[in-house]
Amino acid sequence: MPTPLNQTVADTALLTRSLPLGLLRSFVQSEAADDGLTPTLLAELKILARVPGLLVACNYGGTLCDAEGISTETLPLGSAAIALRALAALPNTHAAVISGRSLRDLAAVSRLPAEVHLIGSHGAEADMGFAHAQPLATEALLQKATTAVNEAVGFHKGIWVERKPVAVSIHTRPATADVVQAVTETAREVARAHGLFFIVDGSVLDLSVVEPSKAEALEALRSRLGASAALYAGDAYSDELAIATLRGPDMGVRVGPGETRAAHRLRDPESFARVLAILFELRRAWLFGEDAVGLERHSMIGNGSSTALVTPDAKICWMSHPLPDSGSLFAHILGGDAAGHFSVEPVKAPRCWANATWTAP
């Protein structure tokens, strides 16, 4: 009977065989514009890919897909959906989408499988029972707010009003800039009059009974899943609340324009999809040891007290010092370059004498 770890690896192998991973690799190696894919970002991705437990979370509209608003227009980018699902299939790796949409709408439009955790209503709605557990007072308040919003802004061209479990949403993407500005000010007044929180989430205005809680949702996921590090990406104000909680080896990514606390910024969802694909390739290679040198290819040297392992390219990757049972000074064999090693090599690449012409003095 397989152990839980072996079963996890087996399940991962079965699932990844069902995914078009060749598309991910070609996407990583494409000549597309690398907007925001800086050397610093790629170096930090390599470190993040090697943490024991990883959580990859992001917003939906504007981050996983190009558009916001009407459900039928907001399918996720194919490459982003594949990469997110592939990450979730790896051992000790979790993926989540934390969106302002209702959970039911998020599940229907994203079409992401069960291994990707979905949380709606700006972090408040983690299960389908949430919508049915609201008190009658909340329902009455939202009904009044919906009526007020329809009367105040519903007649504008390009405006669409939607009821959510704990909010009234105004979709403004098809509207002109003048209409959006007028509707935003009016909606803010309606929210204030009814004691609701006013949230601007891209082209969607939410009048909500609860505060944006993406930060709390991210923390709850980290705790429940046992993640030792997290990547969070978003494009809206509510995402900044989650980004503000990141620490240590975590990574924050802002997709698109706007003020941010994130250390990295990407141009658009297409660039973020490429980051997800790169992260998948890096983490898969680390988890399954694709870059590791076989133990049988190492040499052991010692002087009677200290003992060291040396790779075929003369790199000391493990060295117990000063005694054979002491801790190791280097741990490259376990953690790669970040864990430390000792090597002596030319500063510059050696000249290929086979292609050189030498003339005697």
Order of strands in the sheet with the most strands?
3-2-1-8-9-10
The low-confidence parts are 1-20, 352-361
Strand count, sense and closure of the main sheet? 6 strands, parallel
* Total domain units: 3
Q: Approximately what portion of the residues adopt beta-strand conformation?
A: 15-25%
Distance between the termini: 73 Å
Q: Which class of the largest domain in CATH terms?
A: Alpha Beta
Task: Please name the fourth-level CATH homologous superfamily of the largest domain.
Answer: HAD superfamily/HAD-like
CATH topology of the largest domain: Rossmann fold
Radius of gyration: 26 Å
Helix count equals: 11
Number of strands: 15
What is the string of SSEs from the N terminus onward? HHHEHEHEHEEHEEHEHEEHEEEEHE
Helices and strands: which structural class? alpha/beta
**Average pLDDT over all residues:** 83
In CATH, the architecture of the largest domain is 3-Layer(aba) Sandwich
Descriptive report:
The protein has 361 residues and is of the alpha/beta class. The protein has 3 domains: 4-124 and 212-287, HAD superfamily/HAD-like (Rossmann fold), CATH 3.40.50; 131-208, Alpha-Beta Plaits (2-Layer Sandwich); 295-343, no CATH class. Helices cover 36% and strands 19% of the residues. The protein is built from 11 helices and 15 strands. The chain has helices spanning 4-17, 21-28, 39-48, 78-89, 103-110, 136-153, 177-193, 214-225, 237-243, 269-287, 332-335; strands spanning 54-58, 93-98, 116-119, 160-164, 167-171, 197-201, 204-208, 229-234, 251-255, 264-266, 299-302, 307-310, 315-320, 328-331, 342-343. Strands 3-2-1-8-9-10 form a 6-stranded parallel beta sheet, with helices on both faces. Strands 11, 12, 13, 14 and 15 form a 5-stranded antiparallel beta sheet that branches. A 4-stranded antiparallel beta sheet has the order 4-5-7-6, covered by helices on one side. Strand 1 (54-58), helix 4 (78-89) and strand 2 form a beta-alpha-beta unit. The protein starts with a helix and ends in an 18-residue tail after the last strand.
